[in-house]
Amino acid sequence: MAAGDLENQAELEEKTRLINQVLELQHTLEDLSARVDAVKEENLKLKSENQVLGQYIENLMSASSVFQTTDTKTKRK
């Protein structure tokens, strides 16, 4: 084999390695992007659930006499 052929072979192997590395990184990026989308969706769902629970708790507190404000002057008499 000539020196030029060895150089071309080494260059070809390096290009192949770099292409494979780029493809692997692209797949990783796609996976991470999908995960970010899933987390955003879950976050929105949890925010909505928290709002519903917050409103429910607020309604319970307003309906309960334990949480109603009292007039301390009338209680002391």
From TrEMBL:
It holds the Pfam family DUF2205. One of its GO terms (cellular component) is Golgi membrane. Residues 15-49 form a coiled coil. It is found in: Cytoplasm, Cytosol; Golgi apparatus membrane; Golgi apparatus, trans-Golgi network. Gene3D superfamilies: 1.20.5.170. It is a peripheral membrane protein. Keywords: Coiled coil, Cytoplasm, Golgi apparatus, Membrane. Positive regulator of amino acid starvation-induced autophagy. Belongs to the SCOC family. This is Short coiled-coil protein.
